[in-house]
Specification:
alpha+beta, five-stranded antiparallel beta sheet, 4 helices, 131 residues, single chain
Length: 131
């Protein structure tokens, strides 16, 4: 595995933590408006509880990616059909072939998979590193 891909496998977790911090800041700001008569510590705790509860709900966790999604879009913007890339997840990466590209989606085929069908994924939900 190339060094750049190894770095991205460890960076994925950091990006998700940054997403959580942004969620906490947004919710703290909302709590400041919604609960004007409470102190900052209470607002911070309420925001943290809501972030933890949101992280436990799969659809919310999958869709809330302000930092990770932006980075994923930037990295996949240069990929074209026929390019080889690395499909990076936290702690793992596998080689894929890009077979189609749309404004918000990208179609990939795992190189170690025997199936002929591609996997259509949102460009904001997967991290694809050129390789």
């Amino acid at each position: 595995m190339p060094r750049a891909v190894e770095r991205w496998t460890s960076t994925v977790r950091l990006l998700r933590w940054l997403d959580a911090i942004i969620a906490w800041l947004v919710l703290w700001g909302v709590a400041r408006i919604a609960l004007p008569n409470t102190d900052n510590a209470t607002r911070a705790v309420v925001a943290a509880v809501v972030v933890v509860l949101g992280a436990l709900i799969g659809p919310i966790r999958v869709r809330w990616r302000p930092v990770a999604g932006t980075v994923a879009l930037a990295l996949s913007s240069r990929l074209a059909p026929g390019d080889h890339a690395w499909y990076v997840r936290s702690g793992a990466a596998e080689r894929v072939l890009v077979t189609g590209r749309h404004p918000t989606r990208i179609v990939i085929v795992r190189l170690n998979d025997e199936s002929a069908e591609g996997l259509s994924v949102r460009r904001t939900r997967v991290l694809l590193v050129r390789g």
